Amino acid sequence: MPQVLNRAVLMLRYKQPFVDWINATEPDPKQKLKLSDANSDSTCYLIEVEEEEELDGWLKVNGAALFEAELHGWFPDQELWPKDRSRALFDKWCAYELHTLVFDTGTTPLLDSEE
Prior knowledge:
Layout: E1 3-4, E2 8-14, H1 16-25, H2 35-38, E3 44-47, H3 55-74, H4 87-93, E4 94-99, E5 103-104
Antiparallel strand pairs: 1-5, 2-3, 2-4
C-alpha cells in the first residue's frame, strides 16, 4: 500500500523570459534552447505545506533560494545571474503547480543525495 508523504510537490516550469536569459547567457550560440525543451523535464521540489493557501507564505520565505537553485542549475557563476532576484522576477520567469497529495510507492528508503 503506498504511503502518503507529509510533503507537497511544487513543480516549476520556465516561462519565456527565463529561457531568454539562458540563451543570452549561453556562450555557444549553437546551444540555443527552446521553451519546450527547457520544460521537457521540470524540476519538482518536496515542500512542507498542507494546502494551496499556504504556498504564498512558503514562497515568501523560500522563493529566493528556489530561484537561485534554478539559476545555479544553468550557470553556477553568480556573476551571470540577474541582479534582481526578487519574487516578482521569479513569478515573471517561472510558473509553478502545487500537488498536495503525494504518495511514495517505492520500497526502498528515501535517501539524501548529499550522504
